[in-house]
Write the structure tokens for this entry.
Amino acid sequence: MLRPGSTADIAEMVRFCDCHGIPVAARGQGHSTYGQAQAPGGLVIDMSLFDTVHHVGEDRAVVDAGTRWSSLVAASLARGLTPPVLTDYLELSVGGTLSVGGIGGTSGRYGAQADNVLELEVVTADGRRETCSPTRERGLFESVLSGLGQCALIVRATVRLLPAPASARRYKLYYRDLTALTADQRRVLADGRFGYVEGQVYADPTGGWGYMLEAAAFFTPPSPPDDAARLQDLQYERGSEEIVDLSYLDFLDRLARSVEYLKFTGEWHHPHPWLNIFLPDSSTDAFVHGVLKTLTPEDIGPTGVVLLYPIRRERLRTPLLRVPHEPVIFLFTLLRTALPSPLAVANMTASNRALYERARAVGGTAYPVGTIPFTHEDWRDHFGAAWTLLSEAKRHYDPHRVLTPGQGIF
């Protein structure tokens, strides 16, 4: 493993690996769940110490790829600014999420994190350091964002910033059935009454499933949100709502305490064979109903979570982030936690593959951060019309195919 001290270190070692046919991959916070950041028989570059926030300006920040989003948020909020899109867990690396897309509860309004990048500095397989953007080396730029590390390794990123609110009013609204939840998700996505929208499915005490809409209205006192206007036509169970005001930072980092507890108990280090798939709106309700009909709490594990994010497809503009062709899509995730046994992991992995095939049959696509076994032909099918962009960029920037072999794409 290489722990680089500079971009020059990365470039030198990548060039060495290319010359000698040695696989090489960058590893941020190691949050992928299926060996995506591994390089069997090769070199893994540990980017976690390559984490400087170089500049925070009026509308952008320049950061090293190993920087955690939590560090960028701390630096930007000191200037009254925020990234438009953040994943629910802030301790992920900038380079890592930009390599896959980066989805959060504000993606319905602002797209993926990859859609909010202004410029990248990357290292190609032959050790060249290149700067790329929508107006400079655009082909390279588009092959790196959501490109799964296939054509170049991100070493620095310039990302967009927006004025940050001071506070968030968080709403947790509870439902008896999935159809009511997704109908309300579509409604609030369309009218934009909330800045953040997510759905959750949870095991209820009766042995069935409960449904919850988590939403947030961002504001700066003394102008709080109008609760009546935001809730008046929604179909949740009246009297079940939970409404609380948090600082903007506390809302963004609300999972930190839970994750620390899981790390303390050791459950954080159990295997996590996650399933992450994008579903077309027209198939979402039927697909999720079908999954939940046979799914048990044991199938997702003691700390597993089921999530649904509604997103307007027009907001997702990164070519290599492959999503269904409908105006609204849903990101459906089974964040499974397996017992630390090969059999438990194998069973969940096989289940993920079967569910992916069902999703693909109705127009769904994989969000490739989880655990779904893919063949080379699966990858060609996954990228579809964008396969030419990726394969030509691979031939140009990594002809010896040494970069990021863990996905098995080429």
Q: What stands out?
A: The CA atoms of residues 121 and 131 lie 4 Å apart. Residues 167-254 form a domain with the Vanillyl-alcohol Oxidase; Chain A, domain 3 fold (CATH 3.40.462.10). The chain has a mean pLDDT of 95.
